[in-house]
Every structure is written in structure tokens, then in C-alpha cells.
Amino acid sequence: MRKILLTLLSVLMIALLFTLSVPVQAGPPTNAEGLWRYTPTIIDSREAGCNTFLTTTEVGEWTGTFEGDSTEAGKVVIHCSGAWSFNAIVTFSNVTVDDKEGTLEMSVVGKRPDASADWEGKWVILSGTNELATLRGQGTWWGPGASGPGTWGDIYYVGNTHFEPK
Description:
Blueprint: H1 2-21, E1 30-48, E2 51-64, E3 67-78, E4 84-97, E5 100-112, E6 119-128, E7 135-145, E8 153-163
């Protein structure tokens, strides 16, 4: 009887250890792609040596994987070499992704070699709420962008998204 009890207890412990060691996996990645249209506004400008630093805000309209409107707070640097760099936080107050709704914050960074070249950069989802609380993703973007403040510019984006387990 004692041997049976020890055997049963051993089997239960092994089963418990196996159950606890099975990793939880994220949902499968989904391709992300679409168009990001935006219009920038320059809030502040300052120079340091031959570099120009711009503080910007932008209003954006997204179609494709990300469906909704955004606002952005960003910085643009026009370097002495003529190259431009950009970084911003994009905030979606109400966006739809894969038929799920919520808010999102996304980091975008980019560059272009000179004022006549197209922009290219990267995006990454920082956080979300509601049905998008577990959404993760990253990718690239490129395009001509806006020709100046108050004009609409087009940027194309691609990448991958997935939902983390809850």
C-alpha cells in the first residue's frame, strides 16, 4: 500500500511539474501595413551652432492595420550636414486593430539624408488599453512626408503585431 501511495504521489508531482513548466506563448504574428497621413506644426525652434532643433506636434490619420486618428509630440533635428532626424510619441485616443479597440502609444524614430530625400524609420508599440492592452508590435516606415508645416504628408508602414497572453 505504501509503494502504491508513493508511486501515485510521484506521478502527481511529475505531472504538476510538467504543467508548470509549459511556456505560455504569444499569439501568432500578424502582418501590419498601411498609410499614415499627417500634418505637422512647429511649436518651437532653436539653433545651436549650425544645428536646428524643432519641437513639433502633428495630427495623423492612419489606415490599414491601424485604423484611427493620432496626435504626436516630437522633435526634429536638422544637422549641420543637412541630414534630418526625428523622434516622437504617437498617441491614438481611439484606434482599431484586428477588430479590437482601445488606445495606443507608439514610438517613432526616423531620418533622411537631406531635405529632398524621403524619410525612413522604425515604429514600436509602447502600450495600449482596453482590448489593445496586450498588443505588441514593431516595424518600419518610409515616404516623402509633409513638405512643410500645415501640409499633409504620406508615410507608409509595415511590420508585425501580436497579442500577448493575458
